[in-house]
Design a protein that fits this description.
- The complex is a heterodimer of chains A (349) and B (243).
- Chain A is α+β, with helices and mostly antiparallel strands.
- Chain A folds into three domains: 165 residues, no CATH class; 129 residues, Cyclophilin-like (Cyclophilin), CATH 2.40.100; 27 residues, no CATH class.
- Chain A is globular and about 60 Å long.
- Chain B has two domains: 73 residues, Gyrase A, domain 2, CATH 3.30.1360.40; 149 residues, Cyclophilin-like (Cyclophilin, Beta Barrel), CATH 2.40.100.
- Chain B is globular and about 55 Å long.
- Classes of the chains: A alpha+beta (349), B alpha+beta (243).
- Chains A and B meet through strand 16, strand 19, strand 20 and helix 4 of A and strand 2, strand 3 and strand 4 of B.
């Protein structure tokens, strides 16, 4: 076994996996990764099951150190500067930290959450089949709380497998699709139109329970108290002050505010990555469209292993490299040690 | 002849869940229909249904759209909801010990003042009633009970508290509740129970089921402290009554 030491970490960073489902009827919040595709991509790079536990790193910086042996890891999700002992490393690739080596990460750019997958996963005691941290319920393992500097995760020793990169489709800048309801009839048609036509921003008071939105006030037809009913990831509830809250994986399993719409499953991870203060729009789609998008997402998940290749076999693409540099990635086009940063992901935001 | 039941509304909760809404209000008969549909869905074992969340007025059915579509599942749920409500196989009845007032129930005096009576009378009213677990939600083990006497119904607090203790027994609107974890609440705190409605590493992890009957049994602070120690060690300090 090796250890991955958390040598520095900002708030909102925790061990997350696919989440714990099956006991929402008892009030058990599912938790799990905010951006499941990014977690799955990172896991795929190191040969883990797609929703094995990894480290969800919030918008601030972080640093990790391999101890008592080498550790093989992979990064995906929101881009940020990344270096291993001073040498820039790329997202959407795996890398091996030699014993004592540091991986240092900067602030997230154009996203919120990055995922660090560790070859062999993280040793812990599953609760309801999951290591995912739910701080409010005191659940999660190895620490039932967000990570803190000084935490040490028990992990597998690095296998020495060749390093790999994954080619992910661009996330794009499309509107966030929603299915109206279940309580859109608690709002007038004009109000629903206002909700769909307005530009929204994620408020700084957002967290893993819910993203508060800033935009026009959404008025209710019959007041803001409904008798509580069940919630899902992406439920958009509107409390008394008219500022919608999108429920995230640490949500309450039931809620007592009318829900005007629900973010579709296929767009949930992309929504979770919208940084505070960045404008976006919602778009209403039909149930058939939403479920078709979900099928596409399932297909993408299934295709992840096919999208992985050894780094040695990847053709260096100078044009992509230049694009990445123009986009502000901290690489030098002439430094062969940093060429991996020129992944299509650099242009993903 | 069975009465014709009004059909529930089948509302999309995104692309992977359906809210089967029987009522917009808290209504015991409609809650019975919710729980009956919940049992029927469990019995039917519909392929693609992943879990259900019964509430006062609706059943949230989570499903995998890769296995069953919205229309097909809506049709099945609609048909199941039209079946006559069968009696629950076996109703369990719990007696839950509560230490009322003082530091354990800091709103008891105020509730008594608001309702123009004494704290003892509030306790007497609260323990006289027969409650039913209508739903469990919000946080693990938070049990919402129906059956609060009309004489104890009052609006929630103007200013919700950010932190209320684990085991709090409180009233709010037409409901009374037992919360398991410490957390925010806008309800009036009458007392505390040592009973853990949710406890990891205990069998069962979740004590109460929607549909269970509950009565409260007043205990003194010393008994509460003893029960709290026993409960912490994994003992179920609620009493399961013969039915």
């Amino acid at each position: 076994m090796s250890k991955l030491l958390v040598s520095a970490i900002g708030p909102a960073s925790s061990v997350q996996d696919g989440g714990r489902y099956g006991a929402q009827r008892y009030g058990l919040t599912p938790s799990g990764a905010m951006d499941r595709i990014a977690l799955a991509a990172a896991n795929c790079l190191v040969g883990n099951a797609p929703f094995a536990a990894g480290i969800e790193i919030g918008p601030f910086g972080a640093a990790f150190t391999a101890r008592e042996g080498a550790v093989r890891v992979a990064l995906a999700g929101a881009l940020r500067s990344a270096d291993v002992s001073g040498r820039a490393v790329a997202f959407d690739t795996s890398m091996t930290l030699a014993d004592g080596e540091n991986l240092t990460l900067g602030f997230a750019r154009g996203g919120c959450f990055s995922y660090l997958a560790i070859e062999g996963g993280i040793a812990g005691e599953p609760m309801f089949g999951s290591l995912a941290v739910n701080a409010r319920a005191g659940l999660g393992s190895p620490y039932p709380r967000p990570l803190q500097a000084g935490d040490a995760l028990q992990v597998e020793a690095a296998s020495g497998a060749p390093e790999r990169r994954i080619d992910l489709p661009a996330a794009g800048n499309r509107p966030i699709c929603v299915v109206l309801g279940p309580q859109d009839d608690e709002f007038s048609e004009d109000t629903v139109r206002l909700f769909l036509d307005s530009e929204w921003k994620v408020s700084a008071t957002s967290d893993r329970m819910g993203y508060r939105l800033e935009g026009p006030a959404i008025q209710h037809l019959h007041g803001h108290n409904i008798v509580s009913d069940g919630t899902v990831n992406g439920s958009i509830q509107v409390p008394g002050n008219g500022a919608p809250i999108v429920l995230m994986p640490d949500r309450g399993t039931t809620g007592g505010y009318p829900k005007i719409a629900t973010v579709i499953s296929a767009d949930f991870g992309r929504f979770a990555q919208i940084p505070v203060g960045t404008g976006f729009h919602f778009k209403a789609v039909s149930m058939a469209e939403a479920q078709a998008e979900l099928r596409k997402l399932a297909e993408l998940l299934r295709s992840l292993p096919d999208r992985v290749r050894d780094i040695e076999s990847f053709d260096l693409n100078l044009e992509a490299l230049q694009t990445a540099n123009v986009a502000g990635a901290a690489v030098s086009a002439i430094d062969a040690g940093t060429w991996q940063t020129a992944s299509p992901a650099a242009a993903r935001d | 002849m069975a009465a014709i039941l009004s059909p529930p509304r089948l509302l999309p909760s995104g692309d992977s869940a359906i809210t089967v809404e029987f009522s917009r209000h808290i209504d015991d008969a409609e809650n019975q229909r919710v729980l009956a549909l919940d049992r029927a869905v469990a019995t039917e074992a519909i392929a693609g249904v992943t879990e259900t969340v019964p509430t006062y007025r609706s059943l949230l059915v989570h499903y995998d759209p890769l296995q069953i579509g919205f229309d097909a599942l809506s049709e099945k749920l609609g048909a199941l909801a039209q079946l006559p409500v069968p009696p629950a196989a076996k109703t369990r009845r719990w007696r839950i010990p509560v230490v009322y007032g003082g530091e354990h129930g800091i709103d008891l005096e105020d509730v008594a003042k608001t309702l123009n009576t004494t704290p003892d009378d509030i306790v007497a009213r609260h323990i006289a009633a027969d409650y039913r677990v209508a739903m469990i939600g919000f946080t693990p083990g938070w049990s919402y009970l129906s059956g609060l006497p009309a004489s104890l119904q009052m609006p929630r607090r103007q200013n919700p508290r950010l932190l209320t203790p684990a085991g709090t027994v409180s009233i709010g609107g037409v409901q009374t509740g037992v919360q398991c974890l410490a957390g925010p609440s806008g309800w009036h705190l009458l007392g505390r129970t040592a009973v853990r409605t949710y406890q990891l590493h205990r069998d069962p992890i979740f004590l109460l089921e929607p549909g269970d009957r509950v009565t409260f049994d007043p205990v003194d602070a010393k008994t509460f402290a003893e029960q709290d120690r026993a409960a912490e060690a994994g003992e179920i300090v609620a009493e399961l009554m013969a039915t």
